[in-house]
Design goal:
Layout (H helix, E strand, L loop, with lengths): L11 H10 L14 H21 L4 H13 L3 H14 L4 H13 L3 H14 L4 H13 L3 H14 L4 H13 L3 H14 L7 H13 L3 H14 L4 H13 L3 H14 L6 H12 L7
Helix pairs in contact: 1-3, 2-3, 3-4, 3-5, 4-5, 5-6, 5-7, 6-7, 7-8, 7-9, 8-9, 9-10, 10-11, 11-12, 12-13, 13-14, 14-15
Amino acid sequence: MLRPASLLLLFISTTAACLAQASVGTATPSASGSSPDSLRAAQDSVLARAMAIVAADSSATDEFERMVVIYKERRRFAIQLETAMAMVSSNPRSALAHLLYGDALLDNDQPERALGELHAALVIQPTYVRARVILAETYEILQKGDSALVHLDTALRHNPRHAQAYMQRAKLLTRRGRMSEAASDYRMACELLPDAPSSYGPWMKLADALVATYAFDEAIDALTYCTRLQPSTPDAWLRLAEVHEKAGRIERAIAAYNDFARRFAADERALDAERAALRLRYPAATPR
């Protein structure tokens, strides 16, 4: 079982902080207005500065972290692993170093070795929530769901506002058919996430969990919010029509199906949406 790309989420905010804090003599592009080229140039400056500092002082864990996180974002996993290994070698008593090394091992498809590094991070710092959440992910990859749940429960006791921990636990609970608990965890995660397009995926997962528990009103609210987060993404619009239909709100379902077909006429599902609206409008004419 390979590591899901979606779990790169843990380090996105860290990377932004690294760029914002780095004093490189070059303006750091804003997250909202930066082009890929300008962002890469800023990261290159951060890397060059971090390399110079680490060459002079191998105990500079903040600079090592900047390097590791940027290599991770660029998906240069081999050099990410090399850098994290060097960080641990120079800083064996750093919980952060062991966490980053464990994370790099996961990105290089070595979950068994990652376990050792993440446990080492927790020996040094038992309340280290980031390490415990990634450890839970590692156990999930190794198909040891019970162990993953134990570590996520512990992580949330230490930090009850950790959105990623709620997301991971919700996913595990969903797989076990514990949909009401999963919906509760997705709800908590979504409440902690920013009001930004990047939160679309978690809100869609919340909507699915709510539908599974027949909480149609709340599911419709979640899907409506998704259409505001990413108005040009069709899935939430179509799902909204389907949930209205499941809830027995036929007129709203018809309107939503037609709205989807108009908004996304080029989508291959547009014709099916139009047919769904006609089927609901004229049920007696629908072939059996």
